[in-house]
Design goal:
Strand order of the largest sheet: 1-2-3-4-5-6-7-8
Distance between the termini: 26 Å
Order of helices and strands: HHEHHHHEHHEHEHEHEHEHHEHHHH
CATH superfamily: Metal-dependent hydrolases
Number of strands: 8
Function: Catalyzes the hydrolytic deamination of adenine to hypoxanthine. Plays an important role in the purine salvage pathway and in nitrogen catabolism.
Family: Belongs to the metallo-dependent hydrolases superfamily. Adenosine and AMP deaminases family. Adenine deaminase type 2 subfamily.
InterPro entries: A_deaminase_dom, ADE, Ado/ade_deaminase, Metal_Hydrolase
Number of helices: 18
CATH class: Alpha Beta
Protein name: Adenine deaminase
CATH topology: TIM Barrel
CATH architecture: Alpha-Beta Barrel
Strand content: 5-15%
GO molecular function, one term: zinc ion binding
Bound molecules: adenine, zinc ion
Length: 363
């Protein structure tokens, strides 16, 4: 029943035909579409303006003199060229209030973009390695998310990522710190430099995390080979693959992902900024959707990659011929792939169904 609303929908207008009316229509559909984000690094939502504000507040010196200079430095050639600058930016985050302010600013962007549920990553080691307490980080993020739920009606979950360029011992230490916060952290993930740091390096940490009741996800097949996708499924028992776009290199994997409905949290603007795809027209997300994979649209590190959720949706819709049903399918997939209760999923699917069926009638 929950799956049928898209078939029943009367909105069958192709929305990316040439012509202004249809472009406006597509923009407005995307803006009003309720959205769910499943791949967002909270440190990657640090806008240059806030970076400067926090640097001043905390007496941290930056190698830039204006936010414009920071923005001009965001010319990336690959994942590593981004990560180097991203870890540097995080140095301005020191106090619980900084993590609160960062998260609150992101939630206000969610409200603007009509994001109704979000599952955010944080990288504890980026902060604990600088002497910031784990509790400072998680408490700041968590209290902003609680306020987001109460004041903005945006629900959320937290996923803690291990930095894969660091060693297994550091990941275990981080997992042990997280044990005291099981009530706040729904799952663990794996991010940072994919090349040279395969999933098997963290197989034992993930086994322990699963034993402790955490769900698991992992960045795989962003820049790295399809073997990282296979190994994340096999060894890390992930519930979702973050990125996963390199799956197109392997026909057998495509079939397996389609049959299992294993979710991929795809980040279109991130992928073009980091040169995973040269142009948005070359991105495989629409092809994957049409082949029956459970693909979703997400913003990854929006302050660095030029846009939040609506920008990512628009970038995909502007460069591919898509119907409204297909756009809504990204939200449907994200609801199904989220780490919320069946009851909450049902509620969000209803909300989406209502939106799709009333969108044209109400205009
Ligand atoms: N950390 C933040 N953004 C990331 C990305 N796109 N890939 C890997 N690690 C990340
Ligand atoms: Zn990511």
């Amino acid at each position: 029943m929950l799956d049928t609303f898209l078939e029943k929908s009367a909105c069958r207008t192709p929305i990316n035909v040439n012509g202004d009316a249809s472009v406006n229509q597509q923009t407005s559909f995307i803006e009003q579409l309720p959205k769910v984000e499943l791949h967002l690094h909270i440190e990657g939502s640090l806008e240059p303006e806030m970076m400067f504000e926090l640097a001043q507040r905390n007496g941290v010196s930056l190698p830039f003199s204006t936010p414009e200079e920071v923005k001009a430095a965001y010319q990336f050639t690959n994942l590593q060229s981004f990560l180097d600058i991203y870890y540097q930016g995080a140095n301005v985050l020191i106090h619980e209030r900084d993590f609160y302010d960062l998260t609150w600013a992101y939630l206000l962007r969610c409200q603007q973009d009509n994001v109704v549920h979000t599952e955010i990553f944080f990288d504890p080691q980026t902060h604990t390695d600088r002497g910031i307490a784990f509790d400072t980080v998680i408490n700041g993020i968590y209290s902003a998310l609680r306020d987001g739920e109460e004041k903005l009606g945006i629900s959320s979950q937290i996923i803690m990522c291990f930095l894969r360029h660091l060693d297994e011992e550091s990941a275990f230490d981080t997992l042990f710190e997280a044990m005291a916060h099981k009530d706040k952290i729904v799952g663990v993930g794996l991010d940072s430099s994919e090349l040279g740091h395969p999933p098997e390096k963290f197989a034992r940490v993930f086994r322990k995390a699963l034993d402790e009741g955490f769900l698991t996800v992992a960045h795989a097949g962003e820049e790295g080979p399809v073997s990282n996708i296979y190994d994340s499924l096999e060894l890390l028992k992930v519930s979702r693959i973050d990125h996963g776009v390199r799956c197109s290199d392997d026909e057998n994997l495509l079939h397996a992902l389609s049959n299992s409905k294993m979710p991929l949290t795809v980040c279109p603007l991130s992928n073009t900024k980091l040169k995973v795809f040269e142009r948005m027209e070359d991105h495989n997300i629409v092809e994957l959707l049409r082949r029956g994979l459970c693909v979703t649209i997400n913003s990854d590190d929006p302050a660095y990659f030029g846009g939040y959720m609506n920008d990512n949706f628009k970038a995909v819709a502007e460069s591919h011929q898509m119907s409204e049903q297909e756009l809504a399918m990204f939200t449907r997939n994200a609801i199904m792939a989220s780490f919320i209760s069946e009851e909450q999923k049902s509620h969000l699917l209803d909300k989406l169904g209502q939106f799709v069926s009333h969108y044209h009638q109400d205009k």
